[in-house]
């Protein structure tokens, strides 16, 4: 204790602590007083977690997502700390609501505590501003698109556009948006909240708790307990429960979502955080010129009502029974918010396209995060997909092949399309009508193969022929029906005379392409390298040779890519 | 001045006459203990994971660099050739493509290729090759090395650092590494 005395003599720390802790709680310690302390705890934890996140997060359009993915998926315990910070914001919203309801129920907004009430409301607003600004910072699809909605609303109200541009740093999202949101989230809001909190606590110390209305002054005095340790114990117990719940939630959800990097060119099923869902739902009921009702008028009316609560309340006493108008107003408000939130959730749960969009988004997120482990290219964000060798192949295809060939729904029509390329259905359609746009219709020279009508070959016969041709591809293309293959071969050699143009043995030259190995990646690679080979298209070949232009590895990758278009049958 | 002012001691001396009983005092002691224990637990929630988090990625084994292709075997002979080594560089979350990592001298010694890091083992300046004298020379503090890397003078504590080299199908690849400077033994950093 000598050390403590020494410190006390020099700093007066113990006295200061005594002042802070030594307070009479009139009417005794109570569970319903814990919410303010829980909020203070949550805020402090958010500050600590925010600082920790700041050790890895980098606020720029090119680095935000990459650094968040690094922090979340590579740094030891990064996912846990980020998850705590994320869920901590939800916990704060819940605690703000509970605190407010307790204050309303106790009538603690009444004189002389109006300024307590107002600073409290302001802090509640700041908590929402924290959530809004923080949501954008990972610069992922969800944050990006959901925040677009919020700033879009800002821009749609009369006179709001300059404000929107000021906060975005221009007409579009970019580096300036992220640095602004970052500065607000990390400096402006925490400092503002801290100042308000100091004021709020000082006022609280001045006026004390608001004990149950029924107790007489004498009773309050008699039942009084010291803040330390009686009330503080309850407070800390509540904090601990809250902290434990947060840890559990974070473990269970494995932290916070991180969707694929923001892609301004995509569309994403954006939803705000759950505590903004009621506003989002409200927006659905007011369209066009009425939108302002949902975005400004109703929320504004609610804010004004809450602010004016000390005056709306005309009751003589603090008893709940005499304050039914105020309690009804706040009750209805909460019911409305809860109902809107519930409807929004139910609608989304039943909305198949939303659910599907979410599935796609989750897949994309998993892919992007796996690729980010290799390091995100310095261009940042969506450039992470360049790490995917497949994407490089796609780029190659776009550069060299897509002017003539269509793949994955995009490309030219001068040469056969690769949509569902090479499967049984594809072969069937090709044999029926090789001149179709989808096959050789767009080419100049490949007009020699005759279409085979239903009169010439029945559907059943054609199925056999197709099975035979398919089997020529070998095991890479999967198993074939042996009986059908035999039947097809007979038709091929006999009635249909296919063999007069097409050889089926490897290495043999023929008028039409030799079909041994047809559809395999190796066969496609040979066609890419040089389609004018004697056993392929020979003199009729129109496609440029790519051997020499592209490396063997690139040709192989392209062939693999095309071969993969074959649907699973 | 003592800490017990007129509002009572912070250690919870009773405010209420009724609370002076020993039972009440021991109850308060229990509450204080509870506050302490729970408070420490709360602090540990962010603090415990923060330790490993803040130290990341220290103590993690760095992946050894891959062999980097430097071209055909035919370009090298007994006269050292300076080669720049390029590879992707990962810096925390970002990957830079094809960055120059460093350089080396490649020379044929007794029919076998050897690669020397251009970083002088003394303090890391880039060593030059003097064709006239057939020597490597460091411009900073005049260390000199033979064409096979042996120290011939100056403050360098060890021969030029060799890099791993690989030959396959007439192509040469080198693994780039840096070594600790100023020590007599070659130690990778
Ligand atoms: S650095 Fe080369 S001699 Fe000093």
Tell me what the structure shows.
The complex is a heterodimer of chains A (569) and B (189). Chain A has 569 residues and is mostly helical. Chain A has two domains: 2-22 and 30-353, Cytochrome Bc1 Complex, Chain C (Up-down Bundle); 389-563, no CATH class. Chain A has helices at residues 2-11, 13-21, 34-54, 64-73, 78-106, 114-136, 141-156, 161-168, 175-207, 217-223, 227-252, 277-285, 291-307, 309-312, 324-350, 352-372, 389-400, 424-432, 459-471, 482-493, 521-529, 552-563; strands at 24-25, 225-226, 376-377, 406-407, 410-411. In chain A, a hairpin with a 2-residue loop joins strand 4 (406-407) and strand 5 (410-411). In chain A, helix 3 crosses helix 11 and helix 18 crosses helix 19 (459-471). Chain A is elongated, with a radius of gyration of 35 Å. Chain B is an alpha+beta fold and 189 residues long. Chain B has two domains: 4-55; 67-175, Rieske [2Fe-2S] iron-sulphur domain (Rieske Iron-sulfur Protein), CATH 2.102.10. Chain B is 18% helix and 33% strand. In chain B, strand 5 and strand 6 form a beta hairpin. Mean pLDDT of chain B is 86; it is low at 1-18. The interface between A and B is large, with 53 and 39 residues.
Please write out the topology.
The complex is a heterodimer of chains A (569) and B (189).
Chain A: H1 2-11, H2 13-21, E1 24-25, H3 34-54, H4 64-73, H5 78-106, H6 114-136, H7 141-156, H8 161-168, H9 175-207, H10 217-223, E2 225-226, H11 227-252, H12 277-285, H13 291-307, H14 309-312, H15 324-350, H16 352-372, E3 376-377, H17 389-400, E4 406-407, E5 410-411, H18 424-432, H19 459-471, H20 482-493, H21 521-529, H22 552-563
Antiparallel strand pairs in A: 1-2, 4-5
Helix pairs in contact in A: 3-5, 3-11, 4-5, 5-6, 5-11, 6-7, 6-9, 7-8, 12-13, 12-15, 17-22, 18-19, 19-20, 21-22
Chain B: H1 22-55, E1 67-72, E2 81-91, E3 94-109, E4 112-117, E5 128-130, E6 135-137, E7 144-146, E8 151-153, E9 162-163, E10 165-168, E11 171-175
Antiparallel strand pairs in B: 1-11, 2-3, 3-4, 4-9, 5-6, 6-7, 7-8, 10-11
Bound molecules: FE2/S2 (inorganic) cluster (FES).
